[in-house]
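Take just one protein record:
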Amino acid sequence: MTTRDIVALCGSLRAASVNRHVVQLAREVLPQGASLALLEWREVPVFDADDYARGLPASVATLRERIRAADGVLIATPEYNFSIPGGLKNLIDWLSRGEDQPFNAKPVAIVSAAPGPLGGARVQYDLRKVMLFLNAMPLVKPEVFIGHAPTKFDAETGRCTDDTTRKFVTDQMAAFVRWIDAVERMRG
């Protein structure tokens, strides 16, 4: 069995973010033969075309290479003001610069967790549009929206306490590994 190297981007930088807890859950429930590493992006500056003209900041260049080397990318994000959190969008804007942007033909899975009942549904639709523009290969189903998310994770440990949420994320991670395999077969 081929080992699948998956990296995760969390749309919230907050240490106790429920979406970081979702990444932790995804790591726990991954199928055998897959690994998941959370990429930190706190040092990425606000995008400025003048800075870009001078070259990619080291923090961006490092993330681009790690994403390029990975078999797939999991994005776990909250919804801010009905859309993509500004920091995450800024990160994607940096990563996507240049002909060699790392999302090209890259399998991507999206999960969102939010305190409201919709679980971040609107952010997923906007993020899917961005990923399609970048020629990424987003996993279509199963979609996972974790509504009322703070009630489904232990506040102290970050562990998932909700069996239904655990099943949804387990099913999505299994589908994501299958999707990574399928994309690789399509490439030949």
User: Anything to note?
Assistant: The chain has a mean pLDDT of 96. Residues 4-187 form a domain with the Rossmann fold fold (CATH 3.40.50.360). The first strand starts at residue 4 and ends at 10. The CA atoms of residues 139 and 181 lie 12 Å apart.
